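re: ur question from yesterday

yeah so i grabbed the chain u mentioned. its 146 aa long if i counted rite. heres the sequnce exactly as i have it in my notes:
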Amino acid sequence: MNIKYLVGVVILLVLIGCQSEVNDISGAAVVDDGEVVDAPKEVVSEEVDEVVVEEKIEAEPEAEEVIIKMEGGSFEPDKVVVSVGTTVTWFNNDRRPHTIMDKSRRFRSGRTAPGDSYSFTFTEAGIYNYQDVVFYTIVGKVVVKN
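ran it thru and got these structure tokens back, copy pasting raw so excuse formatting
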């Protein structure tokens, strides 16, 4: 016998052997007695509006002023964190004069007498370690961030 002929006969017998009728009513398969065999699952589709991502752009901060007091043999506070463009003012509230100098020599106050002050505006980010030139154990730090 021819193989094609046998395959055709087997398929025909399988089709004849099926005794259920499938009705396609709104996607459900129904057998002869009306019992639902396979109901479709509810499909929910929703449209998604365009997603808009906004980037918060901060305006340039206004220039700040920070005050550091020289009194009692120390800087108060001895460490400050500021933004680029901030002016730091050292007020000498001590009984003796002080000279403030950045250890990298980016600024130097000169002699600041009691009651006087010295100001410096930080235009570059970085760490500025400073000290009193005469009383070298009096130290402080300004951290400047962008």
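noticed a couple things. Residues 40 and 60 are 59 Å apart (CA to CA). also The two ends are 89 Å apart (CA to CA).
anyway ttyl
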